[in-house]
Amino acid sequence: MKNRSRWTLLGGVLLGGALLSACASSSAPSSNKVSLSINYYHGAISDTAIENAKKAFPDYELNFKQLPANGDFDTKLKASLNSTSAPDITAINSNIADYIPYSDRFVNLLDYGTADLAQDYVEWKWDSCFTNDKSAQIALPLDIGPTALFYNTDAFQKAGLPTDDQAVSELLISDEAYMEAAKQMKEKADMPMFQSSVSLLRQRYRAMTQHIYDKDDNLTYADGQLKKAWDYAVMAEKNGYTLGAKGNSAEGANSVQRGLFGGMIEASWGINDLAEDGASPKQWLVAKSPFLPSNYGGSYLAVIKTTAHPKEAADVVKYLTNEESQRVNYKELALFPANKKVFDDDFANVKHELFGDEQYNHYFIEAANALEYIPFDPRESAAFEAFEDQMTLVAEQGKDPEQAWNDAKKKVEEISK
């Protein structure tokens, strides 16, 4: 069994390398131009930004390769970092902390003048691109995912809650106020406020000001903040304030399209999800989040050390993350800019057919500007997943919440050894 497992693992690594090699081989130069291969996942870079980059670098042969946005992207990228099969430039998702330990396998962009760009970006996102000692910058920010409250106007009206975005923002000013509104929605409209206890736990987790591991890699469970988030989600589940629909699924999309629950705290790119889920105009509007400002998602571009053209690749990365590129990414993909130059009056006052005359972007801008960088331990995602899994058992199988909490902690302690 051990040998079989070993070869299965190696086979996966070799397969990943082979696939990336196939991507890289497509960038073989057909002329004397500098040839650069650029791997990105679906939804990370707009078609217009790609075409603009090709026009901006007529002496370069830029070969963009779009890959599925799933876990395989990370697996294949990590497998290729020490080989010539790696692309010259790669997108990295919001899990950039997973790549900081491999900083020596990326080009240090500080060597190519990026320090002068710091003032252009929201500070916390910029800081996340660096090693802990700030000696190396492995990426530049493509976009961010500041959050706000998306609320169901019909559900709020039935519950006797306000439907104007400013009034909603003034009423739901805290965790407690949000839970009180959930109680009112249950009593007066017989509807749940939340899609599920698991999604609510995620939303509260993203709003924490500390992580499960502190900056010195110690396991702290966010000094009590994680338990408060857990208890908040349990309270909603036990009081019948949750629908029980799974997010990122057909069931979840259906619950949004049919307006089966009251509110969700989601990133700005959730606007595209609403459209894809078939939401009707003015069915959902945007208000300030009742939780502390949080971020959900956001990508980066990095240059891999094996490139034969580090300066040229760095120049392309700087272009693809500049103000112009982030404006078109927002226009086509609703990717919220990390570049603060985009935050002008036109951007703040933007409208969308789903929200009628509401000018909603200021809620996302306020969240983006209020956030602070929190160091992210590479074990963080796996640790939080243990709590997500246990919350699922609470919701779907009626597991005792305290036992579930303790079982999650036990797994995290094993991860932390």
Automatic annotation (TrEMBL):
Signal peptide as annotated in the record: 1-24
Superkingdom as given in the UniProt entry: Bacteria
Keyword Lipid biosynthesis: no
Classification via Pfam families: SBP_bac_8
Bias (Basic and acidic residues) ranges: 397-417
Keywords carried by this UniProt record: Signal
Region annotation Disordered: where it falls in the sequence: 396-417
Protein name: ABC transporter substrate-binding protein
